[in-house]
């Protein structure tokens, strides 16, 4: 069975992204390319990364009116990504139209509450406190809109899976025990997140900022 780890290659430097992906390729199940990589390298960069032969997760987190998001998803079709992201808070019509615009083999998953946000952050943007409740609300909305799954933290994935047993659950904010958490606030170890019900784990800096990314990926994989 392939590894549940998608390594987040958050860099504008395509040569660095290729070098890390090449080093860790035997310990990860795919590569995640996000806003930083895509803003610098665009679709050509994604095509170049695809030549490594690993599944591509395009984490562009679209959030706009339904027509704009659907057209943006449509523009990604030739890249045939394994997974793409949109924001659940864009609403049901936006999620429905995004799913309809995606290639058949692409999983469309909705970000619920970013793992960098906690209760205080939600209150500060006018949402009633507890991230857990907001994740549950948006998980139900994404399920009812016909998406494939959601992005949430390891703290919520067990309850989200209860609401949606057939859903696909992407869990970032994954940190080896005792490691620096940086800007993440809702974190869990890789093993605990998998046990809690994650379908895939997104791991960025614990691998990419390590002195030896290959060893870091190998050590995380060994805990799973
Ligand atoms: O809620 C979310 C959604 C997406 N991400 C992305 O995952 C990686 C995490 O990187 P680390 O270096 O392991 O913190 C990054 O690309 C984010 O854009 C997330 O962290 N939380």
From TrEMBL:
Substrate binds at residues 10, 32, 59-68, 115, 175, 184, 204-205. Residues 4-220 form the Orotidine 5'-phosphate decarboxylase domain. The keyword Phosphoprotein does not apply. PROSITE patterns: OMPDECASE. The active site is at 61 (proton donor). Signal peptide: none annotated. One of its GO terms (molecular function) is orotidine-5'-phosphate decarboxylase activity. It catalyses: orotidine 5'-phosphate + H(+) = UMP + CO2. Keywords: Decarboxylase, Lyase, Pyrimidine biosynthesis. InterPro entries: Aldolase_TIM, OMPdecase, OMPdecase_AS, OMPdecase_bac, OMPdeCOase_dom, RibuloseP-bd_barrel. Its EC number is 4.1.1.23. It holds the Pfam family OMPdecase. SMART domains: OMPdecase. Pathway: Pyrimidine metabolism; UMP biosynthesis via de novo pathway; UMP from orotate: step 2/2. Catalyzes the decarboxylation of orotidine 5'-monophosphate (OMP) to uridine 5'-monophosphate (UMP). Homodimer. Belongs to the OMP decarboxylase family. Type 1 subfamily. This is Orotidine 5'-phosphate decarboxylase. It comes from Sphingomonas colocasiae. The gene is pyrF.
């Amino acid at each position: 069975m392939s590894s549940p780890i998608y390594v987040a290659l958050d860099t504008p430097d395509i040569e660095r992204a290729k070098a890390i992906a090449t080093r860790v390729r035997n310990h990860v199940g795919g590569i995640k390319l996000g806003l930083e990589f895509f803003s610098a390298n665009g679709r050509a960069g994604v095509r170049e990364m695809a030549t490594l032969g690993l599944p591509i997760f395009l984490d562009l987190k679209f959030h706009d009116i339904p027509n704009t998001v659907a057209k943006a998803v449509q523009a990604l079709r030739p890249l045939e990504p394994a997974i793409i992201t949109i924001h659940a808070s864009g609403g049901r019509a936006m999620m429905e139209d995004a799913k309809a615009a995606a290639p058949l083999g692409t999983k469309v998953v909705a970000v619920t509450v970013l793992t960098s946000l906690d209760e205080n952050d939600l209150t500060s943007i006018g949402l009633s406190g507890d991230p857990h409740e907001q994740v549950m609300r948006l998980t139900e909305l994404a399920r009812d809109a016909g998406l494939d799954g959601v992005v949430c933290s390891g703290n919520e994935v067990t309850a989200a899976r209860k609401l949606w047993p057939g859903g696909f659950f992407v869990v970032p904010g994954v940190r080896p025990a005792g490691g620096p958490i940086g800007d993440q606030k809702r974190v869990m170890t890789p093993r605990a997140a998998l046990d809690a019900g994650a379908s895939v784990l997104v791991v960025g800096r614990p691998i990419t900022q390590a002195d030896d990314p290959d060893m870091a990926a190998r050590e995380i994989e060994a805990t799973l």
